[in-house]
## 1
Amino acid sequence: MSVTTAAATREKSLCGFLALLLAVCRFDDEIAMSYSMENYKAIPMSFKWNDELNTGISNIDIQHKQLFTRFNALLQACNTAQEKDAVGNYLNFLHEYIIFHFEAEEREMINHKYPRCDEHKAEHETFKKQINQLYEGYTTHGVNMQVFVMTIRTSGEWLVNHILKTDKVMAEYLRNEVGTGSGA
Ligand SMILES: [Fe+2]
Ligand SMILES: [Fe+2]
């Protein structure tokens, strides 16, 4: 490959990567779907746990940490040749784990008479439906581009909009109700 061709290829792949990153950030399906799985490698995203996210309910905190850990592991796997297996493993884990996790959270909300329980449960139901669809897509067709993109997008969006926002509001209420560090 000539120097000019190599430089042009580098520039093209950098433009592609930036466009893809923007597409993922803006959740633009049309652009995101026009790039191959290769473009998803080295996406510099990480969702780190911090203590502000603690609910004060020990089993829920353990489950949230597990969800963060598994999603971060999936993002890390995007840098390897194992990304298809990683998406499959993640969906196998997630579609069962969220049932267990949501039930635990909903029990706490009911036990402590959380006033926004219904709207919180509605968000759980929406996410469950999205993940079940992805899981069905994966079990029927394997990990194709659509399953790959949507798994990362749906999970990332959920971590940002549900765990980091909706669950945090619930956590504040539960902390006031049961006191920090109380186990359920
Ligand atoms: Fe949660
Ligand atoms: Fe929740």
Note: The chain has a mean pLDDT of 77.
## 2
Amino acid sequence: MVVYCRYCQEVTPHRVKGTRVQLNVCDRCDATNLLITLVKSNGEMHYGKQVRFVEWESKELGSRYKQIHDEPQVGFSVIVDPQYLQFTWLTTPIVEIEDDKIDVGIRCISFKTENSSYKLYISIDREEALKNMVRKDEESGLYQTDKDG
Ligand SMILES: [Zn+2]
């Protein structure tokens, strides 16, 4: 698996450590990293397990959100770790998506907001693997939902 390492400051191979709580550890420096890293051009970094894109009702600052999306688009804000709209980091709306490429195991999106530019790293192997695990559990009935009760 490859993940953006906050210490190496580049995409490096990682291994999974631990059984109950799984951590992603950099093969080079042994740092633990999360699957999503948002790097601001001034070097500021934000990490998370999930990323989504927020569409706003209007262009005015402080307007209400309209919808949460899985894919980025001009006008959307990037939200790291959205949980009931409490979040660790929210950018101002994207004004330009400069680059969006998938290398082996990782997606890198370069974009500009009005005030800054960012690079967003999303480890995809692992996210896909996790999704598949949940799906498998659901299929095998291991995953209990409200419907069952
Ligand atoms: Zn590292």
Note: The chain has one domain: 2-143.
